Amino acid sequence: MMDKxxxxxxxxxxxxxxxxxxxxxxxxxxxxxxxxxxxDEFKTFYLGSEAFPDEKERxxxxxxxxxxxxxxxxxxxxxxxxxxxxxxxxxxxxxxxxCYVMEGRRDFLNEYEQKVGWVMDNLPFIPSKNxxxxxxxxxxxxxxxxxxxxxxxxxxxxxKLLFTDWHNKGISKAELDAGGIVRANHWGDVMEQLK
Length: 195
Ligand SMILES: [Mg+2]
Hints:
- It is a single chain.
- By secondary structure, this protein is α/β, with parallel strands linked by helices.
- It has 2 domains: 6-16 and 75-193, HAD superfamily/HAD-like (Rossmann fold), CATH 3.40.50.1000; 19-67.
- The protein contains 7 helices and 6 strands, in the order βααααβαβββαβα.
- Strands 3-2-1-4-5-6 form a 6-stranded parallel β-sheet.
- α5 (111-122) links the parallel β2 and β3.
- It starts with 5 loop residues before the first strand and ends with a helix.
- Magnesium ion binds at residues 10, 12-14, 147-149.
């Protein structure tokens, strides 16, 4: 029998859609301001800074963000649950996810708890102990890593997949090739690369 491989997956932008967009609209709605129609209206990855360039208003938004669990009711990205279930039956699956949105703020320390809760509800076949809170992902070892951020795909791992999301569509094939990275446009591509 072949040895089991180890696959690492980011959570936000790979398994669930990014929560910031939902949170921003929720906050705008709560203060009676018009909401955004689509993520495509944003130009950068840092939606909070872009939506609220004024520091005072941005801090008010962050206070709002910290009060709620925006993973509650969040729907998985198409194909993620079936793909992860299939891989879990065959190989080792770990979720490697940054859990520190705001350095130094204690009211943001519940992010790990919120994520593991979502995994318990939606991916019950993944043990909670396989959910790793980590930001410097280049420290990780394994056979594959799938992430929607290029900055997390610079470690010493053989198979590196960039999961397509609104903010990384402009990254060229040449840039990907230079980093030994393959683009996965959807979970079908992920499963094909990891078969
Ligand atoms: Mg991500």
